[in-house]
Amino acid sequence: MKVLRVHLVGWTASFRYPIFITGYQPTLPVPPVSTIYGLISAAKGDYVTPLNTKVGYVMRSEAKGVDLETIYMLSTDNSAKSNVYKREFLLNPDLYLYLTDLSFKEIFKKPEYPLLLGRSSDLMMVEEVKEVDLMQKHGNKRVGGTVVPFEEEGIWGPLQALPMYFSNTIPREAIGIKSYYVLENFIEYDGDSFWYDDELDWGVYLHGQENISQKQ
Amino acid sequence: MNNIFTYTGNPFVDAGITAMLVWLDKENPEEIEDYEVKNLFNELTDLYVQKSWNMMMYSVFPNSKLTNPSVKDKKGEYDKLLNELLSEVVALDSHGNCIACGKRDSKRYFTKTQVPLTGTSDFINFFSYGNGGADYCSACALAIQFSPLVFYKCGNLVCLQSNNKEVEKIYAKKCKSFIDVQKATKEYTGCNDEGYTNPVNALFHLVTDIILTYDRREWHRENTGVRLYHFTNFNQPPLDNLSIYDMPDEIFKFLAYALQHEERDNWKKVIKRGYFTTKKANLDDEEEYKNLRNDVYERLLRGQSILKYFVDTNQRRTLVKWSFLEYYMKEVRKMEAKRLDTIKKVADDIAQVIKTKGNIKRLAQLETAKNYGEFRNVLRLIIKDRINAGFEKPLFSIDEYEKYLFPEGNLSWKETQDLIVFRLYEQLHDWLVNNDKEIKEDLVEDEEEDIELI
Fold it and tell me: A22, A151, A182: best mutation site toward chain B, by most B Cβ within 10 Å?
């Protein structure tokens, strides 16, 4: 299958666990699918969802660090207080995106908005945009650096409930929330749910339309 | 009504669901009926108002009906909340905005008062669209109310999560037994507390318990990761109120192998050597050392080698057999079998030449080589020894040297050295013991020769 492969690199990245609002903010080791659709939307300058393109990704980073930050807490009575908390972040993120819609090629060569991987400080740069062939490879392949739905057989790792994308309505609504395996490291997978990138020697899980239940 | 609950990936919701499954003796979350949940309310409220449990609730549900001093009838008020949540529960749908299950919409917003680590309405800019809390559906919020049943005390509290739901159930059954004893004796002590304050040690202890309690030998057939959320939800939490500890599948399998292996007592000795001991610590009393930091555990979780703990260099002996080490190297360190076999073969040949020539100095040189160049030079001397002794076969081929002994040259030499020394200790053990006196004399002579040369 011909897909578009976009290679992005950055200095930092961070992906908040949706369930934690507390003194310590850990980061997920890889982005949720919703972050990826947000990044693609920024590149296009328009709202992009799984209905527009399927997406796969593999992200690695070199290390984790913890930053001490001042935060401003807005209260329901419109008052604001400053506070300090610890935020974990990832160093030197390296992200390979796979899009089934090849028309995004020009979009990533000239993105509409800054490309961010996490927060506004987590700027990413496009290294390479390339059309590649993903293959079906039976038998063992290494997979990792991504999230995979809990129902997939033969995958294991820490679990987390994560959204697939957000609505563009006000208020924003998380759509397609479900349990995902969060694969920080590569594991050996023997199944056919992943495509295979021969050049980079890893499996690619494509998230897309059939992975979500659409609101009618 | 059933089909209310499903596993979500949210640790607190899933812990609560697992607790309900164990208390109701059911297999799958979807089988739990609403009336069965209601039947558990009395037991839950009875337990949570007991003094020791109620104290714990300050770190789980602060400012709640259970902990707010202005609430006089804590049991009644908390029961009311549970019933309210239950009345709002609907069956699982195909979609929804609940941040746990994603299969139902939230009917109200939840804060840290009902859901641990969720923040308060003083944080509205951290919630979606500036709402006054997090979007949980009432079923998931209700499940969370059951999660303290399966928490573990370790200084702060621990919530255990695993992709292997059997593991979660085995652990939850232990928690239930612990609570059953409290109910039977009317001596309430709060959630399971075995005196651990070090979360890494607690993780290994809990996993060991799971592996041994559930006496089965099939762990290698499954892929099991275990995660601990070590947290406190206290009203004024410290900055470090949350830590996450992951035990990956290969470590879980290795532990299962070690604990069900004939060498499990030797494995325990290896663990014991990993403690950062103080002069005061008595290593014969587990209570005295179980909370000391353990380098073996920490290295396993960090993905670093524990090879050095398998040998006692002072005594020149190994603590485990090669077969045990082989499993560790293949399954945990992911070392290629061919590389391991080559190292073993080379080490066996070196042992043979050391014994034949009675040259203990070579062993000392292999042990003390401090860099790649030095180590290679000792191998060169051993090759010369073999030629002088009339051995026909070379110690290794150029192919074996490049591919298997030092595949990454300078980066992998240390691991090769450690493995060769391990195998030499194993192979030469009897010879070293039987020739102890002569060996010491030889070493003294060698040292004198070295001094004269200088």
Answer: A22
